[in-house]
Amino acid sequence: MQTLVDFQHVSYSYSKTSTPAIEDVSFSIKAGEFIALIGPSGAGKSTLCYCFNGCIPQLFGGSMSGNLHIAGCDPFNDGIPILAQHVGLVVQNARTQLFNVTVIQEVAFGCENLGLPREEISQRVTQALEIVGLSGLEDREPTALSGGQQQRLAIACVLAMNPEILVLDEPTSELDPLGAEQVMKLIARLNREFGKTIVLVTHDMDFVAKYTNRVLLLHDHRLVKDDIPANIFSDFDLLSKARIRPPQVCEVAHELQTYGYPLNSIPITIDETLQVLRELHHG
After folding, report:
1. 256, 263 in Cβ contact below 8 A?
2. Phi, psi of 20 (to 5 degrees)
3. pLDDT per residue over 266-275, tens digit each?
4. Segment 234-245, tens digit of pLDDT
5. DSSP 3-state assignment of 274?
6. Same domain, 174 and 211
């Protein structure tokens, strides 16, 4: 598979600060992967997100070093408008990204800035709204939508620009459980059915275990582990140091091990845990 993202020894410090926000970070992402970016508050997750679309270093200034390539682009030299055609960024509070009068104007805005023909813009807007489940709300004011609908609208805005990579910085943090699950199912569908490469920042480890296929763990501004979810959530010492609470089913399995029950591996989903309990019961 094609490598879309390549970070090599990337460090960045914001203006007027001496402490790096991220330090010596190296990893690569292939097309079609679903990546979770986790870590405690202040570890550098949001900073890393802004590196994907060129806001760092071009918009925020500061000091940056290392080598970075995103979908064939160089964020050091290629402008943000160029990177915006390859990377769609959805921030934590969707309301901060919504500023047009109607839903349809909101989704069309990015395409208009790309200078696309009117007919193509109309097709892209219609498709994006259909994918996120907001068809029929074209004339609604974005501020009148629910929190989950606003988050899906923000996703539609970047989808209409047809980027290969979607970077979502805690898209469910301000939603109720139902709204959060709806947004996560949408993101998973974009990855599974439309082939979008996903980078998801989240504090919800149950979502990480359920949906993603690879985890990048940041701690103290460094990338300390890059592995599959099962291996990440089996490393209880590292999770404790990074102040990350694993999915509840992992904690159950860990307690079973503590009490002497033999487990070949730590389950990370409810279905896996049920299978482990059945095997223990029959044993």
Report:
1. yes
2. -65, 140
3. 888 888 888 8
4. 999 999 999 999
5. helix
6. yes
